[in-house]
Amino acid sequence: VLGFDSTDPFFNQSNSLYEKLGNLKKVKYSEEKSAFTVFSSYDSKNVNQILEHLFFNKNNIWSYQKEWRIVRSLNKASKIVNDQIFLFNFPPSCIKEIILGFKMNKDAKSTLINTLSTDKELGHIILKEAHIEYINGKETISINPI
């Protein structure tokens, strides 16, 4: 799991017309069913309302996710796979932490630790690892620094 630094400039790259594109934004949760309103005119204000509604709203049943999103124009993708998957590069400076799974391969873990300790662009990243613990007969996951 990658943990990001939301204050990094990478997360604030809005363009002037569509202010919601390019900015990291908190998802809003509500009881309302998602319904799309047709707007009679398409000026920049309405486009921003449409983007807000489509990309940054979810039903309350998903509120436990505490989700944040960033929406980028597909024509700015760094790589496109099978004309369906649009990948975007991001700078190492926006990565705050990496959390390793408790079943991660030992060789891959060792390689990652070595890379983080030798690459100057990655030296700021905090490395953590998930562990399963049993407390009072219940399985819990704890996340601890390595």
General description of the model:
- The protein is α/β, with parallel strands linked by helices.
- 17% of the residues lie in helices and 29% in strands.
- It has two helices and ten strands.
- The protein has helices spanning 44-55, 106-118, and strands at residues 2-4, 25-26, 28-30, 57-59, 68-69, 79-81, 85-87, 95-100, 126-135, 138-145.
- The strands form four sheets. Strands 1-8-9-10 form a four-stranded mixed β-sheet, with no helix packed on it. A two-stranded antiparallel ribbon has the order 2-5. Strands 3-4 form a two-stranded parallel ribbon.
- The longest helix is centred in the last third of the chain and has 13 residues, at 106-118.
- The chain is globular.
- The model has no long low-confidence stretch (mean pLDDT 86).
Task: Characterize this entry briefly.
The protein is 17% helix and 29% strand. The chain is of the alpha/beta class and 146 residues long.
What distinguishing features does this structure have?
two-stranded antiparallel sheet, four-stranded mixed beta sheet, 146 residues, alpha/beta
Q: Judging from the principal axes of the Cα atoms, what is the shape? A: globular
Order of helices and strands: EEEHEEEEEHEE
Beta-strand portion reads: 25-35%
Distance between the termini: 14 Å
Mean pLDDT: 86
* Oligomeric form: single chain
The major beta sheet can be summarized as: 4 strands, mixed
Order of strands, widest sheet:
1-8-9-10
| Estimated structural class | alpha/beta
Secondary structure layout:
Blueprint: E1 2-4, E2 25-26, E3 28-30, H1 44-55, E4 57-59, E5 68-69, E6 79-81, E7 85-87, E8 95-100, H2 106-118, E9 126-135, E10 138-145
Parallel strand pairs: 3-4, 8-9
Antiparallel strand pairs: 1-8, 2-5, 6-7, 9-10
